From TrEMBL:
NCBIfam families: PRK07231.1. One of its GO terms (molecular function) is glucose 1-dehydrogenase [NAD(P)+] activity. This is Glucose 1-dehydrogenase. It comes from Secundilactobacillus folii. The keyword Oxidoreductase applies. InterPro entries: NAD(P)-bd_dom_sf, SDR_fam.
């Protein structure tokens, strides 16, 4: 039997890259999936390719009313909520001296505030059934230093995961964070970066960057009942980078 049969999931940032990979795998594993993104064109196209078990909803993940709408739509369409994957995120390739206050607040809203809002509203639904799994996508830069703004928010996601896991465990809700390393997604292929990525791959113990599906399989595990005794923990998918 598929690992997510009978379960309903919300996945943010699901129109492309790692998020789209999560959506496809969850549907293939039997879940009904509501996935969200600011990119409506790509989202609608992906939903059309996946059939009745996938529904796209346009969402600004930093907007509280949008979160309420996504939760309400999920319950109205599929009748329950079992899984939340907080995947949406952005990054800047700017130095400390070049990041403006507006830049900083934007990345905090999308990478950090969105996770808080998602957990708050999803957990309220999960409490009603006494079970649920929340998977927050952090980064290896939630464990070690990296770009200003991005690193800050990814450390925050790690901390929020631990705090929420302690509170929500009493309701049968598990909360874990996933920490990807260098993954082949549009985020790392911005501009003329291919040569730099290839060079960086040489410093990875496994000598390559990962495919999105390799992260999705970890997310699937945490979302499923196979991870029934895992909560408040970090799961690293980085090819050994943070082991050095």
């Amino acid at each position: 039997m598929a690992r997510l049969t009978g379960k309903v999931a919300i996945i943010t940032g699901g129109s492309q890259g790692m998020g789209a990979s999560h959506v496809k795998l969850f549907v293939a594993e039997g879940a009904k999936v509501v996935f969200t993104d600011i990119n409506a064109e790509a989202g609608e196209k992906l939903a059309d390719s996946l059939g009745d078990n996938a529904l796209f909803v346009k969402q600004d993940v930093s907007n509280e009313e949008d979160w309420q709408h996504v939760i309400e739509t999920t319950i109205a369409h599929f009748g329950q909520l079992d899984i939340l994957v907080n995947n949406a995120g952005i990054t800047y390739a700017k130095s400390l001296f070049d990041v403006s206050t507006d830049d900083y607040l934007k990345i905090v809203k999308i990478n950090q505030l969105s996770v808080f809002l998602g957990m708050k509203y999803a957990a309220a639904e999960m409490k009603k059934t006494g079970h649920g799994s929340i998977v927050n996508i952090s980064s290896m830069n939630g464990l070690v230093g990296g770009a200003i703004g991005y690193t800050d928010t990814k450390f925050a996601v790690r901390g929020m995961t631990k705090a929420a896991s302690l509170e929500l465990s009493h309701y049968g809700i598990r909360v874990n964070s996933v920490h990807p390393g260098v993954i082949s997604t549009p985020m790392i292929h911005q501009g003329d970066t291919d040569d730099a990525v290839k060079q960086f791959a040489k410093a990875i113990p496994l000598q390559r960057i990962a495919e999105p599906e390799e992260v999705s399989k970890m997310v699937l595990f945490l979302a499923s009942d196979d991870a029934s005794y895992s909560t408040g923990s970090e799961f690293v998918v980085d090819g050994g980078l943070t082991a050095q």
